[in-house]
Design brief:
Elements: E1 2-4, H1 12-16, E2 19-20, H2 28-36, H3 44-61, E3 67-70, H4 77-86, E4 90-104, E5 110-123
Parallel strand pairs: 1-2, 1-3, 3-4
Antiparallel strand pairs: 4-5
Helix pairs in contact: 2-3, 3-4
Length: 124
Amino acid sequence: MILNLTQHPATPSQIEAGVIDLPESGHQRATLHELLTFHELPTADDIEGRAIALAALAAGHAPGVNEAMIGGASWLMPALERALKDEGIQPLYAFSLRESAESIQQDGSTRKVNVFRHVGFINA
């Protein structure tokens, strides 16, 4: 089981690969968003504290959680990787391919859409 510790809900292909989101009900999802959102320049202690709290949230979610999908602020990820590993949880980064498609609109303008297709995970 791979717990989603990112700001974004897991995509259908990530869910198919074993990713689960924290439940919307209760406080877990809200706590995740609070811990991942910084409203001011963090100190090293702030970063470390949030990483430890995120890892504790993951460890307390379910006994079957042994991997976590992470991503976000690059300066938070090393601390989060360490904290998760200290809890016995392997951090993973999602790997996606970006596919672009362009279509001409009725007014003559061009609309470009990027679709990200989940391909797999990279161990941290």
